[in-house]
Amino acid sequence: MTERFYATLGVGIENLVKDELGALGIPVIRMEPGRARFEGTLTDLYRAVIHLRCASRVVREIFFCEIRREEDIYSVIRGIDWSQWLTPDMTFRVTFNVHSSLLRSPRFGLYRIKDAICDEMVERMGRRPSVDTESADLYVVCYLENRRFSVGVDGAGAPLHMRGYRVSSHESPIREHLAAAMVLHSRWDPTAPLHDPFCGTGTILTEAAMIATRTPPSRWRKRFGCMSWPDFDRAAFDALRAEAEAGILPADGLRISGADSSAKSIESARANVASAGFADAIRLEVRDVVDTVLEPGGWVVTNPPYGVRVGDEETYMPTWLALRDRMQEHPGTRVAVLAAEEGFERVFRLRPFKRNRMKNGSIPCVLVQYRIHEE
Questions:
Q1: Cα–Cα distance between 369 and 354 in angstroms, integer?
Q2: How far is 257 from 282, CA to CA, in rounded Å?
Q3: Least crowded by CB within 10 Å, which of 20, 63, 344, 356?
Q4: pLDDT tens-place string over residues 334-345
Q5: What pTM was estimated for this model as a whole?
């Protein structure tokens, strides 16, 4: 049976997710702010959950309507038979995204959705399920766009960027789906070298290795939201995961390397790279950016240090200038840098051939790409 689904996505990742779905044989029927809509069967949803690198969630829409007032949210949710999805012994959590003037308080709307689910379950089954914001059995996803109100259940559960290979963290690592998007936007050729001079805990490098070897991003995950659905097809899901596993290519010949001035970061990176199975494929070392040496004809994909407060440009300017100077010593290099929108490009003083606006968490950023030519 054909159903309605959508993948949630961040700024600057729209076309990547659309292409990923297309490569899976799942055509996108409509792009919306923060969503790529598609139709299909549960098998299509399983395939998306297993393979999407750049999306955050894959949602099965169970109800959609237009509302006229804030009070309609409670009545719509109360009108859904939640006993099809929950028992009183299960837990649930609700995510509610609001872009509408109908609601005075998104937080109040979130509470009303939770109340309506519990009230309906009490009336139908005599007891209410519990809310679990950390590891719920059922993930309910709602959004209100102007008057359009959507209710769905998340097939991923925990966000898809939580791959499961990260075993060590230091400071604020970039999220995995954003790192994958950076590599894909750079159009890196896996036969060429790739280097990250600010590699931190190794996320960009690990995602690049996964892309090159066609390793599914869900490989290490043991739990998905769709597993608690009453119509979950375990055999079909396991077959798709086995098919994805069989398609993994060997990492032989990859020339991926990373460096960082922090020994603690490199220690974390080594642990994460080993956890993902790429200890022999990714070379890591403690090295300051001023000492960067690159192989010819390669790519640099990196997220250098930056901030958003007054004075940050002055703090990080020497680092940005050192990166620029080292890159200019290596003609033929392709460079993709994720930087805060203010300051970096003005200091870097090279003309990018491509710019993609993105977000690193809540920080507006831009992925700027350069080709280093002979002067």
A1: 5
A2: 5
A3: 63
A4: 999 999 866 788
A5: 0.94
